Input
Amino acid sequence: MNANTSPAAAAEGKTVTVTLVKSVAGTKASHRATVLGLGLGRINSRSVLEDTPAVRGMINKVAYLIRVG
Output
């Protein structure tokens, strides 16, 4: 466990998979940065992340670009 993970999420092992389904071209710079922060680069790229409140907030911000599941 590193410093960026919450102990509760790490203990339970809950994860969330996000997939980029729309292009970030033409979106706000902060939304592009959020997509990169989620570990997504190209369309159809996937990232498995720990289910933390911070990650949920990022997902909510760019929900129109990604698919969760």
Residues 29-37 form the longest helix (9 residues). The mean pLDDT is 90. Helices lie at 7-12, 29-37, 53-61. The radius of gyration is 12 Å.
